[in-house]
Amino acid sequence: MQRDRSKILADSIRRLLRRGAFSHLRKIVKKTHAADLSVVFQTLSPAHQQRLFELIENREQKGIILSELDRDTFLDLTEDLDLDELVKILETMANDDVTDLIGQLPAARSSAILEKMKKEHSAQVEGLLSYRDDTAGGIMVTDFIALRQDCTAREAIASLQKEYQDVEMPFYLYAVDENGHLVGVSSLRQLVLVPPETPLKAFMTTDVFSVQTDMDQEEVAKMVARYDILAVPVVDESHRLVGIVTVDDVIDIFRAEATEDILKMAGVGDEFIETKSISKSTRTRLPWLFASCLGGIVAFYVINHFESSLSRFAFLAAFIPVIMGMGGNIGTQSSTIVVRGLATGRLSVRDIRTVVFKELVIGGMLGVFYGLLIGGVAQVSYSRLSFALAVALAVLSSMSVAALVGSLVPMFFARLNIDPAVATGPIVTTAIDIISVFFYFQISTILLGI
Amino acid sequence: MQRDRSKILADSIRRLLRRGAFSHLRKIVKKTHAADLSVVFQTLSPAHQQRLFELIENREQKGIILSELDRDTFLDLTEDLDLDELVKILETMANDDVTDLIGQLPAARSSAILEKMKKEHSAQVEGLLSYRDDTAGGIMVTDFIALRQDCTAREAIASLQKEYQDVEMPFYLYAVDENGHLVGVSSLRQLVLVPPETPLKAFMTTDVFSVQTDMDQEEVAKMVARYDILAVPVVDESHRLVGIVTVDDVIDIFRAEATEDILKMAGVGDEFIETKSISKSTRTRLPWLFASCLGGIVAFYVINHFESSLSRFAFLAAFIPVIMGMGGNIGTQSSTIVVRGLATGRLSVRDIRTVVFKELVIGGMLGVFYGLLIGGVAQVSYSRLSFALAVALAVLSSMSVAALVGSLVPMFFARLNIDPAVATGPIVTTAIDIISVFFYFQISTILLGI
Prior knowledge:
The structure is a homodimer.
Chain A: H1 2-19, H2 22-31, H3 34-41, H4 46-55, H5 59-67, H6 71-79, H7 83-90, H8 95-104, H9 107-116, H10 119-129, H11 136-139, E1 145-148, H12 153-161, E2 172-176, E3 182-187, H13 188-193, H14 200-203, E4 211-212, H15 217-226, E5 231-235, E6 241-246, H16 247-265, H17 278-285, H18 288-305, H19 307-312, H20 320-344, H21 352-382, H22 385-415, H23 420-447
Parallel strand pairs in A: 1-2, 4-5
Antiparallel strand pairs in A: 2-3, 5-6
Helix pairs in contact in A: 1-2, 1-3, 3-5, 7-9, 8-10, 15-16, 16-23, 18-23, 20-21, 20-22, 20-23, 21-22, 22-23
């Protein structure tokens, strides 16, 4: 149902854009939730995006659309946009989103924007810009409810009605001392349940989870997920409350990190590129194929090295694909399990020995099974036992080594604090290709007595 | 910091388990948040899990740990558990979690449990058991705040204090008519802000998002993420409010779906298997390698078919790895982009023609680049232009076809409503291997004039 609604909306927006039926389009845009509009927007061509964006009158809608775009689209779209208009759009947005966007702009343009923004807003944004993008500080919002611990429930409700009308996530009330240090937390629900004269400190929880501004965003996300909370307070080095990270941002982090890992493992960069232009996509993907190209050329030299075997027994060539394929596939299995296990916390770098040993045993067992099967095919085809044995042993060694390399490489990178996803894909496949081919020809050369 | 804390906790629990220092362990367990305990628990060996679980005295902690386990571990762990104890643990848990667990048990045991549970609780669980696991009905909780639309803010607060003390997610107040139909929504925050005598219908929003019980859980999750809401109400066919899906479950869905997609694409089933026993892991992975084995055997016959070319020009064999490797890698790039694009909604099945055409062009451009490069290596090595040309053309055709197959196959499966992640991995790589080898030998045979 949901998907159908999106589809219908996308279809009519496309149709109207093609026809140039702008007044009709303007009406549809007005009635549509910005979140829905944003989904459709991302599937449009750059020209249509430009056109549609100009047609939107409501600046809040524009803001939501901008906050969901990837870097390149955002830069293209806002390049020719009037500075005053851009500032007015940014002022409708939450300051963590504003910070993300401004951080992507060229320095000259971003400082021009900060100059034009209302002082209070720009000061907050400048504060946020000082944190790294992928830390708690970089993703937190600075509007939260902070109350003194001796304030009563009645006073708390009064301040909700006055100063905290616009807070995005008003479910937690944080208690701070005179220096702004976080000392406790309570909830809106508690506030409703206690008698009006109860002071906050009487019903707050003092055992409050918090994170430091420099904590990695993935760690923050895992913490929110683990404790099933709706927001986590962010404190600076001296434990002063400076912001909160809310659960909606946590969802975005998990989705983005999963996509990033998947794309990196396949060697297509860390951003979703299908919506980019052909030449841009090609340029992103080109370098990632170099590893496999180099590996293939090394494999070529390896095979060349065994030229005399090959020229006597040309049929050796026919089993190259299956031996490489079996190694490659089991290697991908092993490295995927390890990369994903590390990302979700099911595996830890500490387990390196257990995990690699286990993979090696599994690779060996699967290698025996498929070695017998593929060796059997060789025996049926050539009725030469020494060759069948060579094929079987090559499959076994290729699969064992592949499982070993596939699990060891990501563990090793993780231990060096290098992202295992980015390093694993091309390196593992390439290494396995070379090793498989080498083992195969070495074993055949010995067993065929060349 | 967070990671360190987990690590320290895990290390001390392991150490104490090995030493058998149970009374010390019991003390640590008592002081530890169940969510932290659960993380450590999942990294332990089955024997240690059994032992630690017995040491836990608090049934709520036990419940949280059980709710986070995968199917097999849960079944192993509870197999010998006393029925009364299991029922008492289940009664501390939210009914959506209870439903998940009971659904995994053998029929005899689950009905015995339902019999023993308190009537009200078991009736709710039985109701939930009738929905499919992966639908809104299967993941919703049935405790939510439903008020009549003419009730006043004061009355609403009074019922929060009485009947709705235990509601898990008390931030939305749903308004229903006399037949239980969902007619509006308001928030705890609104409730605090309005004068006490205001009736709910005066401050509720009537434009309320809801989902039907049979909506796929991934769609529900996307909806919660898109509109940045904390819970979405679930209604039956006649629009009666029957439950809510909360944001913490949405996070779990996204994480699980991402892991599932990644594991499926690598051909290692849809559950994280590294924590399982070696024989279990081996059995899960074995069948997935069949596709690649069969494909390799087909490639063997293809090469065999060109035996006469091979026996005259043995050096043909040396380029098999690089041609297969380049095709395989670009095919993985294409299929990964499409599978992830479909999963995140960046691509839709409607775009099949644009996407496949674009991939084909990218494959062609990258094919020209790497064809020239690898053809150059062939020319340098053998100084035979016709062969160098054959290698270059083989790389070009292999990479173009791979990009085509890599994007077309997942699109095609998605159109047939078959999960593109599960179908793509082995099929795409295997098809590309066979096609690459065939093109290479066909082109060489023609150009070398055999």
